[in-house]
Amino acid sequence: MSASRKLAATVAPAAFATCLAVPEEPRKTADVESRNAERVRLRAERGKLRATDPEGLADAWAMIEDIWTGTVARARELPEPVLHEQVEGEWSFVQTHRHLVLATDCWLRRMVKGIAHPYHPWGLGGSWLTSPRRWGIDPDADPSLGQVLDLRRERMDEVREVIAGAKAEELQRNCVPPDSPGHPRKDHTVLQCLHVILKEEWQHHRYAVRDLKVLEKRPR
User: Fold this and answer.
1) pTM for this one?
2) What is the domain partition of the chain in residue ranges?
3) How far is residue 147's CA from residue 136's CA, in Å, rounded to a whole number?
4) Among 1, 172, 193, 197, which residue has the least CB neighbours within 10 Å?
5) How far apart are CA 45 and CA 181, in angstroms?
6) Which residue has the higher pLDDT, 26 or 116?
7) In the CATH hierarchy, which fold is given to the domain comprising 52-217?
8) pLDDT tens for residues 41-51?
């Protein structure tokens, strides 16, 4: 073999490998940029959840309604039975919304509004809720997606109305829980109650989106 051919045989594989590696760089850059954008978005959303004035709370709740609107529309693209399926033992999409009904009943209706018996029978609690019937909750309930979303719409409208009508001084009002069975059992300010609702909504939305990605990939 001539010297020139030996040189070509030595250089060609390295050059070929370099050519193959070039397209990987834009993909890596895009992935990094995507992750960074996601971190920025989540940081901005978390900041809204900590609002302490009526205008900030209204903005935070508008964000909650907006992200759920998009996610519910996405979920409706799947057959309804799929939205009753669990992913790795976590609540299904329908169960997640039933839990958020309970969270609203606890922190808005029971605490902020002072309703003695605020719970809808379709509410869903975790393992810590050992006697749901004492609260008026039906542990055997199995409502449809449409029924749950209609109920959720009612509860979300209640939250929006309370926030829209709240003044700065109202946010500092101390809420004393009724003596009836329920949670919480200790006093909280209106602002503290609203913060719990916002965080519950935001965190469970993240879980719902995470699990939807899995459900969308399951074979039908």
Assistant:
1) 0.84
2) 1-49, 52-217
3) 18
4) 1
5) 34
6) 116
7) Four Helix Bundle (Hemerythrin (Met), subunit A) (1.20.120)
8) 888 899 999 99
